[in-house]
Design a protein that fits this description.
Blueprint: H1 3-6, E1 17-20, H2 36-49, E2 53-57, H3 63-74, E3 80-85, H4 89-98, E4 102-108, H5 111-118, H6 122-138, E5 142-148, H7 155-167, E6 172-177, H8 184-197, E7 202-206, H9 213-222, E8 227-230, H10 244-254, H11 266-277, E9 294-295, H12 298-306, E10 324-325, H13 333-342, H14 349-364, H15 371-382, E11 390-398, E12 406-413, E13 416-423, H16 427-439, E14 446-454, E15 463-470, E16 476-483, H17 486-504
Parallel strand pairs: 1-2, 1-8, 2-3, 3-4, 4-5, 5-6, 6-7, 7-8, 9-10
Antiparallel strand pairs: 11-12, 12-13, 14-15, 15-16
Helix pairs in contact: 2-3, 2-11, 6-7, 8-9, 14-15, 15-17, 16-17
The chain binds 3-methyl-2-oxobutanoic acid and zinc ion.
């Protein structure tokens, strides 16, 4: 709405190219390594999404990097496949040998990089950069040139080196905010001023050290940048890069820029990358986080149930997400009623009041009520006998300092008896491992959270175990049990949660 008031002050391009570097800078996330096979799968998904360039890796770094680039190239994707190279013949040849159609060459230009890292003069750096672009163009390949640490480089030198590579035939110049030091106003100044001196398209590569990578990328587009470097989930060196999903959704929905991105694939891609990299997204991550379309507060839920736009800037379907109504202490009667209706549970006003009070009181204890919990709560209030698909027939544990803690469980799963014995780091771990091993063939339910607290004091204290279990479809349930025996309490809590999920299915 307000953007319309300032659009005429912007130099917005018709469209913005997405240069995705998940497989290069994203892989530089501390602790992350992506196999060739995984890189191929990510590249296919990035291509299906519709990004323009996929930076497949740094071929000079290893044979795996070269293999990944070659294999990705063989897929014949629509996206251009790029390899990173320093302006060194060996690096450039390593990329050229992979057969890719795009080379991203970079060299540090700031005084810090010149003095401490490269130990080279401005002139030497400039001449190496021009030679590299010449070499790339001689091989008929698209050339993108990055002045690494551009945002801490003297402006006159930056202009000079970018102009020199443009004259040598570079197709794009990229402006890396290597350590994320820009703020939107300075970024706007820089892109505007570079734009005045250059005719080739400007690309930006913003790091998130101060949480400004997306804002700096967007303001660059406002200043006329035609390409943005992104990574899925904002992965990348240190605090990461500008997140693909946030940049794309802002460009499309806030600025109204036309892009050929299949946004409905974003959540799936984010989950996939999170799985293979092991980097979990916080629930409140914009666009793709678990809570991005979740509502708990009564006023919000009321609004969303009447008209989703009241509290949602875009529909969850636009990015392949789903709306969630969470029950907790802020939940209003309307949300609980709508959930019960969804499950076809008919209740009297009196029964409803009871359920409502229980949801609020659990919320006050800091416990969120999942859908499965609400169903179990309602059935309790209505007086329906608690159904159990999985029943405990018996279990035993052996523990001590000279034996490996071992548990044996015997479960009745819908009439069928199954047993398993498993070890663990302690008796509780062994018992839960044994239950999970019996259930692994029949369900995909896993323990997501385990909490224990002593309710009373003494060696015969009552222990309260609270667990959260979940399955791959996103069904979640809490389970709890209180007894003097912590292993028994754990087993009962786990089975309580498992039964709630199975009944929900
Ligand atoms: O952050 C950076 O400067 C880089 C360069 C390789 C472009 O990743
Ligand atoms: Zn980077």
């Amino acid at each position: 709405m307000y953007i319309e008031k300032v659009k005429d002050q912007m130099n917005l391009p018709e469209t913005v190219r997405i240069f995705d570097t998940t497989l290069r800078d994203g892989e530089q996330t501390p602790g992350v390594a992506i196999t060739v096979e995984e890189k191929i799968r990510v590249a296919k998904r990035l291509d299906e999404l519709g990004v323009n360039v996929i930076e497949a890796g740094f071929p000079a770094a290893s044979s795996g990097e070269r293999e990944a680039a070659r294999e990705i190239l063989k897929l014949g994707l629509d996206a251009q496949i790029c390899g990173l190279a320093r302006p060194l013949k060996g690096d450039l040849d390593a990329v050229i040998d992979c057969g890719v159609d795009y080379i991203h060459t970079f060299i540090g230009t700031s005084s810090l990089h010149r003095k401490y890292k490269l130990k080279m003069t401005k002139e030497e750096i400039l001449s190496k950069s021009v030679d590299a672009v010449d070499y790339i163009k001689d091989h008929g390949i698209v050339a993108e040139f990055s002045a690494e640490d551009a945002t801490r480089t003297e402006f006159d030198y930056l202009k000079e080196i970018y102009k020199a590579v443009e004259d040598a035939g570079a197709d794009y110049i990229n402006v890396p905010d290597t350590v994320g030091v820009m703020v939107p106003t300075s970024m706007k100044w820089l892109i505007n001023n570079l734009n005045e001196h250059l005719s080739i398209p400007i690309s930006v590569h913003c790091h998130d050290d101060f949480g400004l990578a997306v804002a700096n990328s967007l303001i660059s587009v406002e200043a006329g940048a035609g390409q943005v470097h992104t990574t899925v989930n904002g992965l990348g060196e240190r605090a990461g890069n500008a997140s693909l999903e946030e940049v794309v959704m802002s460009l499309i929905t806030e600025y109204g820029i036309k892009m050929n991105i299949k946004t409905e694939k974003l959540v799936n891609l984010s989950e996939f990358v999170s799985r293979i990299t092991g980097v979990k997204m916080p629930p409140n991550k914009a666009i793709v986080g678990e809570n991005a379309f979740a509502h708990e507060a009564g006023i919000h839920v009321h609004g969303v149930l009447e008209k989703a736009e009241t509290y949602e800037p875009i529909t969850p379907e636009m990015v392949g997400h789903t709306r969630k109504i969470i029950l907790g202490k802020h939940t209003g009667a309307k949300a609980i009623k709508s959930k019960l209706d969804e499950y076809g549970i008919d209740i009297t006003n009196e029964q409803f009041d009871k359920i409502f009070r229980q949801v609020k009181s659990l919320g006050d204890k800091g416990i969120c009520v999942t859908d499965a919990d609400l169903k179990a709560l309602a059935e309790n209030v209505i007086g329906k006998a608690k159904e159990e698909i999985v029943k405990l027939e018996g279990f035993s544990v052996m523990t001590g300092n000279i034996v490996m803690p071992t548990a044996t469980v015997k479960l009745n799963i819908d009439g069928e008896i199954k047993t398993a014995a498993k070890t663990g780091v302690g008796p509780v771990d062994a018992a839960i491992n044994a239950i999970q091993s019996v259930l692994v063939d029949t369900t995909d339910i896993e323990l997501q959270e385990y909490n224990i607290k002593a309710v009373t004091g003494g060696t015969n204290a009552l222990a309260e175990v609270f667990v959260i279990m979940g399955d791959k479809k996103g069904n979640r349930a809490t389970g709890r049990s209180t007894t003097e025996d912590i292993v028994m309490a754990s087993v009962e809590a786990v089975l309580d949660a498992i039964n709630k999920i199975l009944l929900l299915r």
